[in-house]
Amino acid sequence: MKSEAQFKSDKLAVLIDADNATASIIEALLKEVAKYGTAHVKRVYGDWTSTHLNSWKDKLNKFAIQPIQQFSYTSGKNSTDSALIIDAMDLLYTNNFNGFCIVSSDSDFTRLACRIRESGLIVYGFGEKKTPEPFQKACDKFTYTENIEETEERELVEAAKGKKETQSNKPKSSAELKANLKLVKLVKNAYDAIAEEDEWVTLGELGGQINKLSSSFDSRSYGYKKLGELIKAIDIFEIKITPHENNPAAKVLYIKLKN
């Protein structure tokens, strides 16, 4: 399994479908991408002669994103998708990348994500919650752009004294989390898959297994910035924190399902 440092050094290609992504999210999106590696390629696809992409234009230079022009030759046909897919395959064959970030809420990229993963590379998907499930599941990790926006909003709220937390980003209570049977089942299934009977496992191991079971899982969907905060709030695990064996200044969180 890769270490966090290895993930952050990964070379990534970020390919954005401008027809199915909003320009307002780009700064927060690139911050999210930086958690997984370095964006060596940043391209956004669309018909730039169209006025509906005007909101993107001031973002291109600011964030060094290369616009790829694709005319809509035929009504009803999405030539932008085809251009993005062709470029992705060209970049894949260079063998210069460790992973791809596909930014779209369109299911047309499902097969592309599967093909990239078949080559042993990681696929990070980003899209709205309305994104069809096949594309979400085709990615190693799928992040809802609404969660990225709410995280950005929460950080601004925390930085501004005297402002109250909005209802949309308020953390769900322990009772609400326990009542979410889908969430509880997911977390328990992940624990059971990696733990022997009555065994302590690390939070990192649990998080890795959760993402294998549900590529779109994100603790921010429940109002918690970190997985550890969410696990503590669910309150179905015993928790202990110990110094890291190689770095006493760092802490390792262990969990065990309560009897």
Summary?
The protein has eleven helices and nine strands. It is of the alpha/beta class and 259 residues long. It has two domains: 4-152, Rossmann fold (3-Layer(aba) Sandwich); 171-257, LOTUS domain-like (Nucleotidyltransferase, domain 5, 2-Layer Sandwich).
Q: Averaged pLDDT, please?
A: 87
CATH topology of the largest domain: Rossmann fold
Q: Give the N-terminus to C-terminus distance in angstroms.
A: 30 Å
Approximate strand percentage: 15-25%
Poorly predicted runs are none
Order of helices and strands: HEHEHEHEHEHEHHHEHHEE
Number of helices: 11
Largest sheet: 6 strands, parallel
Protein name: Maebl
Domain HTH OST-type: 182-259
GO molecular function, one term: RNA nuclease activity
Pfam families: NYN, OST-HTH
